[in-house]
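hey can u run this one w/ 6-O-phosphono-beta-D-fructofuranose bound, need the structure tokens asap thx
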Amino acid sequence: MSADIKRIAVLTSGGDAPGMNAAVRAVVRTASSLDLHVYGIRRGYEGMIDGDIFRLERRDVGNIIHRGGTILKTARSERFKSKAGRKAAYESLLAHDIDAVVAIGGNGTFTGATKFEKEYDIPFIGIPGTIDNDLYGTDFTIGFDTSVNTAIEAMDRIRDTADSHNRLFFVEVMGRNSGFIALNTAIGSGAESVLIPEVEMPVERLVELLRKSAKRNKLFSMVVVAEGNKTGGASEIAAKVKGQLDMFDIKVAIIGHLQRGGAPSSADRVLASRLGHSAVLALVEGKKNLMVGIENYKISFTPFEQAISMAKPINEDLLRMAETLAI
Ligand code: F6P
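ok here u go:
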């Protein structure tokens, strides 16, 4: 065990994700079991800059494993992007005698951590917490499973009404730059098609596909559209196909932030517990500036630089499979 680390701070940053609380709980309880002191930082890097840092004891994280959101609050910090902001954050950590930080978040969080690591010598371990699942170095990020479950539940409800009225629904799910949520939602809900940022689907092809399925007596259809789809979100796609699919009454549904809330699924609770636990063990073993992830069910570590810069490709076989199964 590293003798240097006695006081660990934990924060959540970027978009919240169901399961973040379970990760905070795991960090606090693991650290406490090793007689380390834990401090919570409110509102991510914003609270680090402002010195909004408070003691977290074992009992403070009781009764949160099942709760969505984050008890630590979160923010996307503009100030941490500047040298002056990071200097203020460093000074706050020094003022509270913090030896190491566990940062739970996504791309923006680890981009901030990479900059900080080059300027100051306070070890960081990152835990991937984002519904988007868009980080290299982990098969799953905390919140992804829950958000897909939520989107699928919404799709099941839309299916009932789409079926009753013979309608074509374009349903938009989150995913600014990635189609993981959209693809899994489409497979799990039996959607007709899926549009994602990684693979361009020309509108003409989509129209042809939907015409064919109408000919096969499919009287209603659902198409999942990722928010970041290059040819447009659900409303834009609906506008583009207007007049070309007269057999359907076309509707749009945007699931939006509904996908970010709610109780974490069992998969997210277990994942968050494992990652939180491993993050603390990693710090006391002297590891730093790495993201802890899960690959093939095993804990792995990836440098922040790689986690944010390397592409995590979509599984194109799954995309093809989704099309086959929709016939
Ligand atoms: O990064 C997660 C995410 O939920 C994206 O899918 C989405 O584009 C974005 O956050 C929305 O962020 P905000 O709630 O800050 O608008």
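The pocket of 6-O-phosphono-beta-D-fructofuranose is lined by residues 15, 106, 130-132, 174-176, 227, 260 (CB under 6 Å). anyway lmk if its weird
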